[in-house]
Design goal:
alpha+beta, nine-stranded mixed sheet, about 20% strand, five-stranded mixed sheet, 26 strands, Ribosomal Protein S5, domain 2, about 600 residues, 20 helices
Length: about 600
């Protein structure tokens, strides 16, 4: 069998000789670097329009952009001579002094138009302000026609047809029309978010296009644009981000931690108006949210970093999707600090999505009941039956009275408490949920989840202040474990001691616990140690003290919190509500789930037909 490892596998009569490539081949190679798919063409053309000062950009595509891409703008426009020059390689209006480290525009390579013209049918029509007529030039897969007069309003129209027709092998790598349309839509959305003062219209043949009007400058206009693209949930639960340090500015909006998704698809990052997918910024966002978002979930945000052009290199990737900062540490710390500051300022606030979901359940439950006096459905769905049973269960009210007494079941709340953000505790449901009342809403709190976050924040604060206070056990607790679990805990003993848990090996199959964190009070020591043992198996010392520190604190907090099923007094419930109001991040538990749901009274009245 012949070998395939050497030159003999591909015999040639003559040796290869160095030769100059033709301009057509050079352009097609450049096109392969710049034009990956139809969305790449849309990106280049829209960026050109933005650089030309356009305030209104219209994009039309057909067949996923392979049949047609047309971008029309109202920018400065070009003269006939500029049209001809724009089709030359490395010709650009965006490098005034040819300084590649002082880029203040979105495009600058001067390769997009000649590259597109080499693999497709390209038509450029443009008219400058004050010109009596427009000028047009056509390129048919590398063959250019003379510039000629045309009709067009001031601005530029670029039309690309039969994309990749000169390189048909490339068509085999294209995805479905729907997938290409989605890529185009995502490209335009990102550019529209980065430039809220510009109006965008996108028509792809799909039912859901995009049409956004220009927004005024400032945070309000920016948020309105983001809400139009990212949705109502983000608009209602976004926190403004803003900070400046040593010439670097970060601005934008980040969602509350309880507003998250299973993928990072709604994390939008921009540098000097350019959409990027930068690992440094992604890591900074992850660090800023830290333990506030569940593992495998991603918060929603749109952040823009603005800094002098000389402080960032945008010339490190052909599609300009990646950047390199001159001082990455300064940028990273600014992003982390600004986002964390906004999250802490939000205090106990949780996203409104929980209330929306609750009202959805209530609405479906109400629709299963005939309130007009007729017969109700014979067999409501299992979900609704479970909801009805829970809702009809008796309240564990503070001052319960006989059902024959017409007096209210609980004493009126103190007036001052009704004005507090989480209101006055009124009842306990199923010994798990606290029901509170404000002047304009009903608040339902998961007592275990809420107290878990409070204990967790106390442990973190104690660590920051020098260490967690410990309490010695009168009789040390012996916990039996597997030998590998004992080994893992002993290896990490120094880390646990910083958290207030003092333990040591007690033979090959047990751990001896001598001291526990005072914050936990009376807790299930054996359960806590067993949970920590499962987490410690397979971890290294560095991993425990750094990456796993939050998980260890969370596990301890879970064991030291008020458990579901415990009956609370009125004083205990109100104390829990007041501490939640005073504790940052108390709107979500250690696992990222909301600790309470607020139902607005106006929405409840609509549910019962009172509005």
């Amino acid at each position: 069998m012949p070998s395939c490892r050497g030159p003999e596998a591909f015999p040639r009569e003559d040796p290869l000789r160095i030769r100059q490539l033709t301009p057509e081949t050079i352009n097609r190679i450049a096109a392969g670097e710049v034009i990956e798919r139809p969305a790449s063409v849309v990106k280049e053309l829209v960026e050109n329009a933005l650089d030309a000062g356009a305030t209104d950009i219209d994009i039309v595509t057909a067949a996923g952009g392979l049949s047609l891409i047309r971008v029309t703008d109202n920018g400065y426009g070009m003269t006939g001579d500029e049209l001809a020059l724009a089709l030359e390689r490395h010709a650009t209006s965006k490098l005034a002094d040819e300084d590649l480290f002082n880029i203040s525009t979105l495009g600058f390579r001067g390769e997009a138009l000649p590259s597109i013209g080499s693999i497709a049918f390209l038509s450029l029509t443009s008219r400058t302000t004050g010109a009596s007529e427009a000028q047009e030039v056509v390129v048919d897969r590398g063959t250019r026609q003379p510039v000629r007069p045309a009709a067009l309003n001031p601005g530029t129209r670029v039309e690309v047809r039969e994309l990749f027709s000169a390189t048909p092998a490339r068509l085999k790598f294209m995805k479905s029309e729907r997938a290409e349309n989605m890529a185009i839509s995502e490209t335009v959305k990102r550019l529209a978010m980065a430039h809220p003062s510009v109006a965008f219209t996108l028509t792809t043949g799909e039912r859901a296009g995009l049409k956004v009007s220009a927004q005024p400058a400032g945070p309000d206009g920016h948020l309105a644009r983001l809400g139009r693209i990212m949705g109502r949930d983000f608009l209602d639960n976004a926190l403004e981000i803003g900070a400046v340090r040593e010439g670097v500015e970060i601005a934008g909006f980040a969602g509350l931690p309880t507003l998250h998704r299973p993928d990072p698809g709604q994390q939008y990052l921009f540098v000097n108006g350019r959409p990027v997918k930068d690992r440094l910024l992604v890591g900074a966002v992850r660090a800023a949210y830290g333990d506030l978002v569940p593992k495998g979930r991603y918060p929603l945000l749109a952040l823009t970093v603005t800094l002098p052009p000389g402080e960032v290199d945008v010339n490190v990737h052909p599609t300009k999707a990646e950047v390199r900062f001159r001082d990455p540490g300064r940028v990273r710390s600014l992003v982390i600090g600004a986002v964390r500051s906004a999250l802490e300022a939000a205090g106990h606030r949780a996203s409104t999505t929980g209330a929306v979901q609750a009202f959805d359940v209530l609405s479906r439950a109400a629709s299963a009941i005939d309130l007009s006096g007729g017969r109700a459905p014979a067999r409501p769905s299992p979900d609704l039956r479970g909801f009805a049973e829970a809702w009809q269960a008796p309240f564990d009210a503070f001052d319960t009275v006989s059902s024959a007494d017409a007096a209210p079941a609980a004493a009126p709340p103190a007036e001052g408490l009704l004005d507090r953000p989480l209101g006055a505790a009124r009842a306990q449901l199923h010994e798990t949920y606290i029901v509170a009342q404000t002047r304009g809403s009903v608040v339902i709190v998961d007592q275990h989840a809420a107290h878990e976050r409070l204990v967790y924040e106390r442990i973190k604060q104690a660590l920051t202040n020098g260490g967690v206070a410990r309490q010695a056990l009168l009789i040390p607790e012996v916990v039996e474990l597997d030998s590998d679990e004992v080994t893992a805990l002993v290896e990490h003993a120094a880390g646990y001691e910083k958290l207030g848990l003092v333990l040591e090996g007690f033979g090959p199959g047990a751990i001896l616990v001598r001291e526990t964190p005072a914050l936990l009070g009376e807790t299930d020591i054996k359960g806590l140690v067993r949970d920590l043992a499962r987490e410690a198996v397979g971890e290294t010392e560095g991993g425990l003290l750094e990456a796993r520190l939050a998980a260890v604190c969370s596990t301890m907090a879970c064991h030291g919190s008020v458990r579901a099923g415990r009956r609370l007094t009125a004083e205990e419930m109100n104390a829990l509500l007041r501490e939640m109001e005073a504790t940052p991040h108390s709107g979500q538990c250690n696992h990222g789930r909301p600790t309470y749901v607020e139902l607005k009274l106006t929405d409840i009245e609509r549910l019962f037909g009172r509005r």
